[in-house]
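Morning run. Coffee first, then this:
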Amino acid sequence: MRNIIITILAILVILPPNIPGGSIFAQNIADGDSLTWADFIDNYLNGEGEEAETEEQIALFEELHRAPLDVNAATRSELLLLPFVTEAQADSLLAYRERKGGLRSLGELMFVPGWHFDTRHFFHLFAACAPPAAKPRSLWQRLKDGKHSLETRLDVPLYKRDAYKPIDRAQYDKNPNSVYWGNNMRNVLRYRYEAKGLLRLGLTADKDGGEPFARLGNRPYDYLSGYAEIGGIKGLTCYLGDYEARFGLGLAAGNALYASRSMLAGSEPTLPHNLRPHTSTEECRYLRGAGLSYQHGHWHATAFASLRRLDARLEGDTVGSILTTGLHRTLREMERKRNLRTVSAGGSVGFRSNRFQASLNGAMTHFALLYSPELRTYTADAFRGTTCGNASLDYAARLGRWLILGETALDQNAHIATRNIVRFAHPKDWSLQADIRHFSPGYFSFLGQTLQQASSLTNETGLMLSAAFRAGRRGLYTAYIDLFRFPHPVYRASQASNGLELQAQGEWAFRKHWQLLARYRFKARQYDISGYKPYMEYVQKHRARLQAGYTDNTLQVRGGADLTLAASQTEAATFGWLCYLRGAYAAGKHWRVGGFGAVFFTDGFDSAVYAYDPQLPHAAAFSSFYYHGMKWTALAAYRPAPWLSLALRLSSLRYFNRSEQSSGPDRIASAWKNDISVQVSMKI
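And here it is:
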């Protein structure tokens, strides 16, 4: 109850009455393109990888989607925040805009040189087209015209986990980590201010379910994050607070925004060199401090410095592992809360033109305590020490229809990592791409993240071949195959192991409003046979999806079926299927409603099925379904005034063959799992 009262008071204090402003109602219906936001998540940011990583990717893209770029005012650096926009395309758009005096609609992008269908297919989800500014405005006028927004969301579970049930003193003394010290509600508060191209401010506060509110060191939220991005000085941008760095392909520093091979198969790769504010509730993968980015002609430079604390599992004065959940609910979790101080610094300097670019990148991190993972077969090559660093060179050259780009990096012990891409693109219809990677055993990059099959950027060699073909304006076909090998042991594989992943996908549009999608994905990877080390077997997963949809200016409907088959050489195959229906409807200017319903049957967790379950804005999630059951979700949003939006989400999960869910402190002694979420959004 305390968090509800404080949130309401914050809204009343910050928001003056009767202030006009723009709408912040989430865009769920596509305008002029059949690809919707839900399609983008469901088909290109699939949730079949690591859950935290998938949710982080959704959150990053959603922040860009909810605050679309004005194509007539966006700067070069703002355009390059979108990972599918290349530097050549950004320059081409700016030149076209200058020559034509602005664009009249996003449809005009088809006349911009270099802006092929694949780029426009994604771009409309992250951009808008406002009329060109009539005349330059003063600095004060630009600041005065900046937009404030405030958003708060409260998630209330209508069930009780074991960790919230009262226990006696003897039970607590026996297992103190079976109790959550806070209530079961989650509350997120976001404030944003933006004066286009001049100043961006943000504050994010988050209390997860089970975390204490306004006590036990929380003031009042467990997680607080803020940033300031200051522009307006020609070529120079300053970042203060929490931010993220993206250099090249991510081997030395930076997280690759493209986590999905589905997107890589049909889009031209880029080499970004930028900082961006950290805007999500992800509590691990970001920097805290200050950064500068400078652009002058063909030259660019970026530098950053960070001082922050991380959660870690300590063994005396040694770090056994770094924790990334961001949860501080139990006594043990609170003892590990931000107990490791880290200092990071780095930078990038380079040259780029339309046909060639090259950059030198570097990053280092110092841990206040010795980092030394527990010695196991698969950690024998892991980094151990207090200071790590990386230096890299990234490069790109465009030769007619050919594009060659890559990055090669060394760590502090001269272990090498390299990733190189060769792409051939026909001007209109098709493209071929080869992506080769090699990460030496022992290579360590604390700030790096790129295309990889393992959870860390080390001990992997791979080759990904992909192709994309567009049949007129109505068909898009993509396919890839990723062959990979781990030369040294990894988790669940006590010796060298191999694997492959492949996918073929087709999308068709017909009769103006109808769409059809078909996809097949296969993955096989070697693991130890349980109880028979060092003998290994291939574990295989087959996944298929068939989806049909209808989209017009007010209605979006998607229905489909997913199939999963999991098999290995020593165990019987397991099977799973899911049938779903998802839709959204704009009922006039003030109301929008949406829903999702699914029935699923799987033989177990190995044959789980995945589908995008619609969420309220900034509530990133991708649901997995296993065992036998059904799930439904209903959403409604009401906009009583241009500056105010109210949203409600109800969801219910029911298992047919289970009387309880989860285990340990998270156990729910029921086959039902019902939730309600309420969100208030304002823009001034």
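Confidence is low (pLDDT under 50) at residues 1-32. Good start to the day.
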